[in-house]
Amino acid sequence: xxxxxxxxxxxxxVLTVSDxxxxxxxxxxxxLVESLTGAGHTVAERALLPDDRYAMRALVSKWIADAxxxxxxxxxxxxxxxxxxxxxxxxxxxxxxxxxxGELFRAVSVEEIGTSSLQSRAFAGLANATFVFxxxxxTSACRTAWEKIVRHQLDARTKPCNxxxxxPRLKEV
Length: 173
Fold this sequence. Notes:
The chain is of the alpha/beta class. The protein has helices at about 25-40, 55-65, 85-90, 100-115, 140-155, 165; strands at about 10-15, 40-50, 70-75, 95, 125, 130-135. A six-stranded mixed β-sheet has the order 2-1-3-6-5-4, with helices on both faces. It starts with 10 loop residues before the first strand and ends in a 7-residue tail after the last helix.
């Protein structure tokens, strides 16, 4: 077993939810892939889907069911427009919500975008021992989430605790 000071590479899937982007124009997904791999993690799979709650739910369910997937980063669909449906699609899949993530994300976002941060419905949780993070679609918001929160929690060297080191205990009864 690794000590808490050893890096633990994780297998992470990246999903972009957008009606207007393609993989060629997906700067937010590109940023997350580059950040994950730059930190030493592996991108298990990457996809781009339109704002369709059933397509999102189907793909994320497949990833959650894969024992080799440690986490999922979703970007897009967390706002208030009519097509934004990531929370409605994915919250029902979670075994446990992580309310502190959304709260912390909005708190750190205030420094960058002021009270507009209240429009974010970013969230995170756990499903079948897989971490799920749902981030806004802008590259700036993905950078904020990664640099100020997610990167540290997916790094086993973060003290006093982090998500990477508790992963083996997530299915305890």
